[in-house]
Specification:
Length: 402
């Protein structure tokens, strides 16, 4: 079967909740992927940063295969020998005390919200059912009902109500708005350090630090959704490190699974995550030995291959290089580490046509919102490979200049 045949089958039998580029991938290795017609592409999206270690990393695949021969699922009714080791290694790597494992990012965000509410009632003394969580405009935290309840994107919400109460929305990158929104019933401030899905929005320097200080002053938990920005993507292990502080709660996912198995987690202190008692929260697959074995190796790869440092170095290099492109279509080039956005002017005809043209020359990118092209290659990428990508990007901007 060829590309168009697979697309026809997918369109007939699969729900249409995505609008993918028309490339049908059948094989991948490192930063490269191949389609069913034998064409080769550089993956410049990394499955929204879930493939930071590169596709089918030999060490991660080896860990996965080896775990398959031992045990894959116990549920938390029993214990297994992988989950405790992952929990310990994650805490040692990040400086947190405790971990709660889930599967998807959205589930981990939900878990962080539940954590903050329970903490709010038990530790802060918020009256029952009055807890508030503050989130930001243009956020992206996942797709569950509770999470879309505080989305401001009509596309994510339309026809999905009624929504969950207990959330307040303030503008992103606005310190005063947070100060004003906090009440005695505020349990947490939930924020993406850099808003990736919203179009790679980097707040003013000092914003994150200042909001953290306001949270501290008001006994409000600062929850960082580092699902996309965490584990090295922005050139630090966590994006909040760019401003030199540790959130009370950090949510991770995506590349924790090394690009091959879903796993997410909530990281925090004993005081905060300690609010959970047996039976109050859980997940059948959460902390399963297969996911944990994969995640342990995924973390080792980040450390051993110095992916955090590489993201910082290559990101600096590539952002600078992108800014040399002279095109009437480009409004802004911004980013941190290897989380990069090229914002187009409204007259440019949308980012989608640029992504399609890039695909045709062997570079897989995806638009985020209408006007932004996201560049987020695996963190293993080298300078020469970025140069290869750059030549194609430049070529496409030249081609679409008129
Ligand atoms: C991807 C993402 C999520 C949701 O993760 P899923 O695994 O798709 O549920 C939440 N927050 C951020 C910042 C993300 O990038």
């Amino acid at each position: 079967m060829h590309t168009k045949n697979y697309i026809a089958v997918e369109d007939k039998y699969g729900a249409h909740n995505y609008h993918p580029l028309d490339v049908v991938i059948t094989k991948a290795k490192g930063i490269w992927v191949w389609d069913v017609d034998g064409r080769k592409y550089l993956d410049f999206l990394s499955a929204y940063s879930a493939v930071n270690q590169g596709h089918c990393h030999p060490r991660i695949i080896k860990a996965l295969k080896s775990q398959l021969d031992h045990v894959t699922l116990t549920s938390r009714a029993f214990r297994n020998d992988q989950w405790p080791m992952l929990a310990k290694e994650l805490c040692q790597m990040t400086g947190y005390d405790m971990v709660l494992p889930m599967n998807s990012g959205a589930e981990a965000v939900e878990t962080a919200i539940k954590t903050s509410r329970k903490w709010g009632y038990q530790k802060k003394g918020i009256p029952q059912d009055q807890a508030e969580v503050i989130a930001c405009e243009n956020n992206f935290h996942g797709r569950t009902i509770a999470v879309i309840s505080f989305s401001t994107e009509p596309l994510y919400r339309r026809d999905f109500g009624p929504f969950a109460p207990g959330f307040k929305i303030i503008p992103f990158n606005d310190v005063e708005a947070l100060e004003k929104a906090i009440t005695p019933n505020t349990a947490a401030f939930l924020v993406e350090p850099y808003q990736a899905e919203a179009g790679i929005l980097i707040p003013a320097e000092g914003y994150l630090k200042r909001t953290k200080e306001i949270c501290e002053k008001n006994n409000v938990l600062f929850i960082a959704d580092e699902i996309q920005t965490g584990l090295g993507r922005t050139g630090k292990l966590f994006a909040c490190e760019h401003e030199g502080f540790k959130p009370d709660v950090a949510v991770i996912g995506k590349s924790l699974g090394g690009g091959c198995y879903p796993i997410s987690a909530v990281l925090s202190t004993n005081e905060i995550l300690g609010v959970f008692k047996p039976g109050e929260h859980g997940s059948t697959f959460g902390g399963n030995p297969l996911a944990c074995a994969v995640a342990r190796e995924a973390l080792c790869v980040i450390k051993d291959e110095k992916l955090v440092q590489n993201a910082a170095k290559q990101g600096r290099y590539f952002i600078k290089k992108l800014r040399t492109i002279k095109s009437k279509h480009i409004k802004d080039v911004r980013g941190k580490g290897l989380l990069i956005g090229v914002e187009l002017k409204p007259e440019a005809g949308g980012a989608r046509r640029f992504c399609e043209a890039l695909k045709d020359v062997g570079l897989l990118c995806k638009e985020t919102h209408e006007q932004v092209i996201r560049f987020a290659p695996p963190l293993i990428i080298k300078k020469e490979e970025l140069d290869w990508a750059f030549d194609r990007i430049k070529e496409v901007f030249n081609k679409l200049e008129n």
